Amino acid sequence: MLAPAEADLARRDPALPGLATVLDPDAFLDTLGRAAPGRELGRAEIAYVKYSPSTYCRVGYRVSVAGAECHLDVRAGRREDLASWLEDGNGPTVPGLLGPGRLVLAESAVLVTVFPNDVKLPQIPQLTDSGLRVSMIRDLLPERPDLWPGEIRCLRYWPGRRYAAELSAPDGSRALLKAYTRNGYRRARRSAEVFRSRGPLRVARLLGRSDTHRLLAFEWLPGRMLSSFLAPEIDREAMTATGAALAALHAQPPGALPHWKRADETAYLFSLAREIGFVAPRLSALADGLAHRLAAWLAVAPDVRSPVHSDFSDAQVLIDGNRAAIVDLDSALCGDPADDLGSLFAQAEIHALGGRLSRHHVETMRSALLEGYLHTASGVPLERIGPYTASGLLRRTRFAFRARRPDWQGITEAALERAEDILNA
Hints:
Elements: H1 4-12, H2 19-23, H3 25-35, E1 41-52, E2 56-65, E3 68-77, H4 79-88, E4 102-105, E5 110-114, H5 124-127, H6 130-140, E6 151-158, E7 162-168, E8 174-180, H7 182-192, E9 201-202, E10 206-210, E11 215-219, E12 224-225, H8 236-250, H9 262-279, H10 284-300, E13 306-308, E14 317-320, E15 323-326, E16 333-335, H11 337-353, H12 359-376, H13 382-402, H14 408-424
Helix pairs in contact: 8-12, 9-10, 9-13, 10-13, 10-14, 11-12, 11-13, 13-14
C-alpha cells in the first residue's frame, strides 16, 4: 500500500497513469502476475526510483520468481509515449524468468524490461551469455587471450545507462568491463583518454575498447572503498591520500573534456528545485530559495576550468596502502575543482544527518582531506567550498526519495536546512 506522500504524488500527476502502480510493490506484483500468469512470484523490492514529473518514472525492481531473483527495469509513462517506447525496442529479446524479455502493461502505460534485455544497452545479452561472450571479449581485448574465456560478475547496473562487471580469467587475471549507450560511450572514451596515474593519484589504465559493442575494458585496481574508512573512526591517512589524489586529478590537462559552464550549473540547480518542489510541495519554497541563492553566487563566481570528476563521493575512491585511486571518471567535465570537494563534504553532511558520522567526524574528515589536497595543490579554493557543499546537498536531497527511504521527506527537509545553514555561515 502506498504511503500518503506517494499516494498524493500519484494523484497530482495524472499524466502518468501507472505511477501509483510502479511506486507500490504490492500493486506492481499483482499487476505483473496478471501479465505473466503461471509464474511463481514472491516478494518485490524497489532498488531505486528516477522520476521526472509528468514525463516518466523509472523504477528498478528486484522480484523473486520461483525462488530466483529477477531484475526488472519498469517505466511508467504517458499513454502517448508507449508506442514510441515499443518502437525503440522492436528488436529481439532474450526470454527469461517471466517468459518474454519485455512485458507491456498497456492499461497503465507501463513497460517492463527483464534483465539482461535493455533497449539502450543491446550488448548486455551477448555479454552475459557465456557462449557469445568469447568473441566479444576477443574483439575488445585482442592482445589478452588469457581473458577471453573469463567469467563476468555484475558490479553495478544502471538500466538504460551503463553496465559494469568484473571479468575474471581462470588464471586469476581480472579486468573491469563497462558497457555504454551511444552518447555515454563517446563521453567515457574521451575521459579515459584524458586521465593518467600521476604522483599520488592512481587511475585505471584503459586496456581495450570496442566501438562496435560500445565496451571499454580497464585494469582492475586493488583497494577498499573510502566509505569503509569513515567509521567507527575517520582514518586520517586515507583522507589525506584522497585529498592528494584529488588535487593531482585537478592539475591534469583537461584535454577535450566538455566545459560545465556557470549557466549550466544554474540551470541544473533550478531543475533540481523544481523536482524537489513537485515531489514534496511543502519544501518547494525552501528548495527554490536555495537554488536562487546559489544562482546569485554563481553569477559572480570566477570561471574556473580544471578537470573535475563531477560526481565525486566516497564510493569513487579506492584506498590501497598510502595511495588513492579515483574511479568512475565517465562523467568527467572541465569545471570548478571546488565542486568535487563540496560534493564529498555534502555526502559527509548527509552521513551526519543520518547519524552515521558525528559533527566531530565531519570536521576531522574535512581537515584531513584539505591537508592532503594542499600538500599537492598550490592552493585550496576555500572560499568556494561552502557554496559547493550547499549545492551538493541540494543535489543529494532527491536521493532519499529515489532510494525509497521511509522518512524521505524528513531527510530531504533536514538536508535543505543544512544547506541554508552552510550558506548563512
